[in-house]
Amino acid sequence: MSPEASPLAPADLEDLAAAEDWPRFFSALRDAPRGIHEDFATVHQAFRLASSREAGPVGADFAQLRVALLRNAALEPWLPHVFLAFVRRGMVPELWLGDYGVYEAYLARGDSKLKDFGPDLTLLYIDPEELAGDHAFSGGSELLESLRQRLHGLVDLLGATGGSAVVANLCPGPYGASTVYSAQTPMSWPNIRRALNVELVGMLAELESVHMLDLDGHVARFGADRARDVGSYYSSHVPFSPAFMPLAADAFAAVVERTLRPPRKCVVVDCDNTLWGGVLGEDGPSKLQVGGGYPGVLYRRFQLFLKSLLDQGFLLAINSKNNEHDVLDFMSTSADMVLRLDDFAARRINWEDKVRNLREIADELNIGLDSMIFIDDSAVECELVRSIVPEVQVEQFPESPRDIPAFMDGLRGLEVLRVTADDLKRAESMRANSKRAELRRSATDLEDFIRSLDIHLTIRRQPRDLVDRVSQLTQRTNQFNLTTRRYTVDEIRSLMDEEAVYTLGMRDKFADYGTIGVAIVRSAGDRAELDSLMLSCRAFGREVERTFVHAVLADLRERGVESVLGLYRESPKNAMVADFYHECGFSPVDGGEDGQRWELTLNTPPDIDPEDRYSIVTEGLA
Amino acid sequence: MNETTQALRRVFDQLFGPSVAEEIIAGDGRPHPAWDSVAQINLVMAIEQRFGITFSPEEAGMTTSFESIRDLVEAKLASRTA
């Protein structure tokens, strides 16, 4: 919610819809204060009005997608909440509800209803009480086995559709308080439900595009008795209480958002009253609260939380008004600190303004300000950053330490679906940046610098083990990206079947960067077109991009391609590559409604590494 | 129109849209096509939340006109303050 958002009256919604001003309609809903999203009648009003939209743009900053919901419960009252939760996260969904209790018939190939709708994503909601029927009290191994088979079958069918899907795990029903007997009996109904949820984790781990909605976890936090309304459950099969509906919808929207957009990349934290309790410069290191009992234990928990983000591929940075020497000294000597200097990819500990520091950190790490989350306990600092660089996600750290757990739970922008090996290498390589910068200063010229890095490149064609990473690069790379076309894992797999996908891997004396470049080529006869070409910001400044392109061109020539077309599609962030094809020897050609086209005739084999600067290994190239 | 009636009317306006809500309220008591079983569930949940009251499933099944709902809401509000 933007801080200047004003309350949105129901009449405003009616007016905007009547005027068919849908961009403002959806923006108003997205930016409205939270209270509106919890008001059942207003949520339903918004959904009713949006459902009357026949056509027309929704606004450039909204993604549109089609979402199918398969269910064995009355999800109708929940749909408007799902709609609004999506809008709150910048997505306008078209929702389609399957017939009650029908799963297999929709998912099996050949059924036309779901196919006709053509969902971008399918949700599977299974009400376990409904599924178990009369056996829900008795339990038993036969029940477990039959439900396990049903669940396996459904997940297999979902996986086979090839599209993105979300499966909600099984949440407790409106009765069934655990007795000692049921808790201690492996085949009791409560334990069967838990066992199926654990199995579901294993089933989904095998499938790249099917993700989990931890409804069970959300119900547990909210309270099982409050999450359902017994009256409406047994009279109408409505699975959620109105109070729980917004929360369940947002949890669903959060998973879906992550299938469309990457998370933030870097968390920038303040030190005093954020990494630790107290002010280092005033209280002195011995008085700081970190570790031990309350409240230090909660600051330590927060550090453990940040440390866990490193394992998910996020970067950490410090932006603190302090004497640098004091902070470095405390961080390297305190026995209670979890985070050490090496955990931070960049740091600005000085008395400069924090916006300037943030910009410098972004430059140093080669990431956009819109990839950053800034956490600071000062309302003034937060407001300053919010007002000058609104693209940074600003989160004010709680004043009271007891609010730290809820703060960690509520942090948006950090959800990841899966962590690839390359994610983990990113932090390592970014931390190597400062050492590299030092070397750069000591090297007399760029040529010497590049040679001193001892760069090893690996260029591969159709690397099927890298489909996740290739898709991720297409989703995340903004600056060095010639066409900014985004592809899902399944689309990359199809491209590897039908066209050509090349990857570039790199390591130097400081770090192994993993896969940092992708080229996608579509060919027809002796002509080819570079559909996509991108390089991760981690690889900038080493001039490997031309070597990569020349290796791809050389391979295409060997395969009989005589001319190659390249396209530059301008985006808000890719101005740096506007002349890239020109630098690679391409000539501009007319045509191309969506950007500048360039062409190169492959008369002679391109020289891949004319200065002999890199050690190059290829795989699958002709 | 008293405060409860006005607040109830606002809920009807929001859920059905002002013109359909007008038709329902001015109707002859016969079921309006927009007031189907799903609308019934939504209406009950919206009213419960707006007024801070609870309908039993039996009561929810009996709320088939604007007037009957208004009477029920007023009775529940009165018993709460009594």
Tag the structure with descriptive keywords.
heterodimer; A: 622 residues; alpha/beta; Rossmann fold; eight-stranded mixed beta sheet; five-stranded parallel beta sheet; 18 strands; 42% helix; globular; disordered N terminus; B: 82 residues; mainly alpha; Non-ribosomal Peptide Synthetase Peptidyl Carrier Protein, Chain A
Overall description:
- The complex is a heterodimer of chains A (622) and B (82).
- Chain A has 622 residues and is of the alpha/beta class.
- In chain A, 42% of the residues lie in helices and 18% in strands.
- Chain A folds into four domains: 61 residues, no CATH class; 197 residues, SGNH hydrolase (Rossmann fold, 3-Layer(aba) Sandwich); 145 residues, Rossmann fold (3-Layer(aba) Sandwich); 196 residues, Aminopeptidase.
- Chain A has 28 helices and 18 strands.
- In chain A, helix 1 packs parallel to helix 4 and helix 4 crosses helix 5.
- Chain A starts with 9 loop residues before the first helix and ends with a strand.
- Chain B has one domain: ACP-like (Non-ribosomal Peptide Synthetase Peptidyl Carrier Protein, Chain A, Orthogonal Bundle).
- Helices cover 73% and strands 0% of the residues of chain B.
- Chain B contains five helices and no strands.
- In chain B, helix 1 crosses helix 2, helix 1 packs across helix 3 and helix 1 packs across helix 5.
- The mean pLDDT of chain B is 91.
- Chains A and B meet through helix 4 and helix 14 of A and helix 1, helix 3 and helix 4 of B.
